[in-house]
Amino acid sequence: MVRTNILSESNIKKVTEQSGIFSIIEYDRDISVEYDTAMNSYFASKMNLKTKQVIASLNDSGVIVQSGAMQMCMGNINASTDISSATDLLKKFVGSKVTGESAIKPKYVGNGIVVLEPTKKYIILENIGEWNGGMIIEDELFLACEETVKMSIVPRNTISSAVLGGEGLFNTRLEGNGIVALESKIPREELVAVELIDDILKIDGNMAIAWSNSLKFSVEKTTKTLIGSAASGEGFVNVYSGTGRVLLAPIN
């Protein structure tokens, strides 16, 4: 049996969110600092640049983690990789080169607690089952997910849409049911969620950080002609059409 106070709240830390196996610990301020860095740490906390940690509580279950993100495991937990064969390893290696994600993501299974490394970024927990058949995410957003979530690499529909849209040739797709923890540079409070029901969203730039797998992505001219698009000062726009959800970071 393992007993720990890691999820116990105090005057400097609190549990800000819980979903599925995940809990997010946020430290209101860093008190283990040197005299010379105390002032910077104080003002950083006032700007909500606080240290956070993701805790995964396992009960005969598993969690898939970004490579290098595990800090410690407490309890009867075994680690393995998500590689099933040499062919699978090659596919994941190629995928890592085109998306910026690590090729191998460890999987921890058993009973106990998995603690991830502290981060100054913002943690966003999302339920994959609420994303119309899956979620496509921007590069390097993935931090961890429940073992019931399936990951794959998907190409853009056309090379022109990838090049002109500024979103890259490939993206990571998350499918199935379960919770995923995303590590974002943008806090949830600044993100804009758009729900589409057989409709269209047009964006000037690559502000979308996640969108439903059910949506069709394309790049279009702002007007019917290239001259008109140039005159409007907008040029091309990213277009998401169909039914699903888009998560935007317009201030970034």
Structure commentary:
- With 252 residues, the protein is mainly beta.
- It has a domain of 174 residues: Double-stranded beta-helix.
- The chain contains 4 helices and 15 strands.
- The termini are far apart.
Computed over alpha carbons, the radius of gyration is 20 Å
Order of helices and strands: EEHEEHEEEEEHEEEEEHE
The number of helical runs is 4
N-end to C-end Cα span: 45 Å
Determine the fraction of residues in helical runs and give it as a percent range. Answer: 10-25%
Q: Give the amount of beta strand, in percent.
A: over 45%
The biggest sheet, with number of strands, parallel, antiparallel or mixed sense and barrel status, is: 8 strands, antiparallel
At CATH level 2, the architecture of the domain at 13-186 is: 4-Layer Sandwich
Average pLDDT, rounded to a whole number, is 84
Q: Which residue ranges are poorly predicted, with pLDDT under 50 across at least 5 consecutive positions?
A: 227-233
Derived structural class: mainly beta
List the helices and strands and how they pair.
Blueprint: E1 13-19, E2 22-27, H1 38-46, E3 52-65, E4 70-80, H2 86-99, E5 107-116, E6 122-127, E7 135-137, E8 142-146, E9 149-155, H3 159-165, E10 170-176, E11 179-184, E12 192-203, E13 208-212, E14 216-221, H4 226-232, E15 236-248
Antiparallel strand pairs: 1-2, 2-3, 3-5, 3-8, 4-5, 6-11, 7-10, 7-13, 8-11, 9-10, 12-15, 13-15, 14-15
Short description:
With 252 residues, the chain is mostly beta strands.
List keywords for this structure.
globular, Double-stranded beta-helix, mainly beta
